[in-house]
Amino acid sequence: MDASIFQIILIFAVTFVVAIDQFSLLQSLYQPIVTGLVIGLILGDVQTGLIVGGTYQLMTIGNMPVGGAQPPNAVIGGIMATVLAITLGLQPAAAVATAIPFSLLGQYGVT
């Protein structure tokens, strides 16, 4: 599936808002399962968005910033996993595994 320019701009806007503002009062909205739903709505495949977002959420549910250690950014990884699964037609497990480097890069951008 090819994404249109409008869809790419919407995905960028959602990613920007969620990545910048993930430490506000609405922290429960900035979870991979919610962002998977939103990206699924934008790309037209809500079911895959929820499945991939839920899978990524389960993988990162125990990651806590303890001491000086920072876990990978679950929000960026969840968004990338959803985009990869829908646009490339990957299985949820393959999309989650492929998105892990993006979550590491996202964490470097936050810190």
TrEMBL record:
Keywords: Cell membrane, Membrane, Phosphotransferase system, Sugar transport, Transmembrane, Transmembrane helix, Transport. It is found in: Cell membrane. One of its GO terms (cellular component) is plasma membrane. It comes from the Bacteria. InterPro entries: PTS_IIC_man. The chain crosses the membrane at residues 29-53, 74-100. One of its GO terms (biological process) is phosphoenolpyruvate-dependent sugar phosphotransferase system. It holds the Pfam family EII-Sor. This is PTS sugar transporter subunit IIC. The lineage of its organism: Bacteria, Bacillati, Bacillota, Bacilli, Lactobacillales.
